[in-house]
Amino acid sequence: MNVLVMGIMGRASFKALISWALGTPPFFRRIGGLLAIIFGGFLLYAVV
Question: From its phi and psi, is residue 25 left (phi > 0), alpha (psi between -120 and 50) or beta?
C-alpha cells in the first residue's frame, strides 16, 4: 500500500507528508492511529 501511495504522490511529497505527520502533537497522532485502526477494521469486515 505504501508503494501505491508513493507512486501516486511522488517521493518528495510523501517524505514531506511523513515529516509533517511526525511533527504533529501526540494527541493528534493518537487520534489518527485510532482512526486508521477503525478504518482498517472496516475494510477487513467489508472483505470478509
Answer: beta
- Contact predicate 16/25, CB 8 Å: no
pLDDT, tens only, 8-29: 777 788 788 888 887 878 888 8
What is the greatest pairwise CA distance in the chain? 36
Distance CA 32, CA 25 (A): 11
Task: Report if pTM > 0.85.
Answer: no
- pLDDT of 19 reads 83
Domain ranges of the chain: 2-47
Round to whole Å and give the CA distance between 22 and 9. 18
